[in-house]
Amino acid sequence: MGRNMAVKRVNAFVLKVDPVRENSQLVNIFSFEYGRLKTLLKAGRQSAAKRARSIEQLSEYEILIYFRETSELHLISQFSIIKDFQRIREMRYGLFHSIAIIEHILKLMPLNEPSEKIYNLLKKSLIAIEGGCDARVVYLLFRLYLLKHLGLLPQTEVCTSCSRKLSQDAYYVPYKGGLVCAECFNGEENGSIFMKSSMALVKLLRSLSSLSLNGGFEARIGDELLRDANRLLDFHISYHLDVQLKSTEFLRF
Fold it and tell me: What is the pTM of this model?
């Protein structure tokens, strides 16, 4: 171990694996102890048997890491599986939504900022999908909880223009960060993207946003409401975080 390296053992989910050079892999992980990290798994760091298994996206591992003080890229020394979520890999929609959840962590969580709440949320979400909960509902709740953690939930209680409590259909306007009542809504809002939101959708987002991390995964939500809620969050995330998630392209509600 080099002078500028410290060895740490962490529990982590693998977010993404990319091959680099011969038999080496760039592994993005989300760890319980240190948050999102970029790591490198070099050829020869594992025995032949363990290399044959490789390290897989979506699985949770115990990983021994050499932390570099002068770089954001750290070295994986050893890893052992904690949970592989194999059942999810056999579920078409469960797998699609689980990968989408993983992408949110990869794209929205900053490097080197641990969050016990989000780590536990990720684990509970995957366990819920594997256990048979509607993956679409779990995905929606995960997104709401994550946005709440980031302080970026869309405003659904009051009109973002006049501050009156919303009691009927409204319009979601991204640059306002939430909903605008029908009285304040100005046509196409000067050409910006907008989305009409039914009162049923408004009430759904309010109720789900108020749930604790321990509840809600078994909720039953109609297809149309699920589609509209996730579409609204797509607009919100794209505008306020300037991130285009690939998962929104292959998920169809």
Answer: 0.89
Q: Which fold has domain 93-154+188-250?
A: de novo design (two linked rop proteins) (1.20.1440)
Question: To the nearest whole number, what is the mean pLDDT of the chain?
Answer: 88
Instruction: Give the number of other Cβ atoms within 10 Å of residue 157's Cβ.
Output: 14
Return the beta strands (E) in the chain as ranges: 5-20, 24-31, 35-41, 60-68, 73-83, 170-173, 178-181, 195-197
- What is the amino acid identity at position 59? S
Q: What is the Cα–Cα distance from 160 to 154, expressed in whole angstroms? A: 10
- Beta-ladder partners of 180: 171
Q: What is the topology classification, in CATH, of domain 5-84?
A: OB fold (Dihydrolipoamide Acetyltransferase, E2P) (2.40.50)
Q: What is the pLDDT of residues 89-112, one digit of tens each?
A: 999 889 999 999 999 999 999 999
Helix (H, G, I), strand (E, B) or coil at 16: strand
Q: Which residues contact 156 (CB under 8 A, 6 or more apart)?
A: 166, 178, 179, 202, 205, 206, 209
- Where along the chain do its domains lie? 5-84, 93-154+188-250
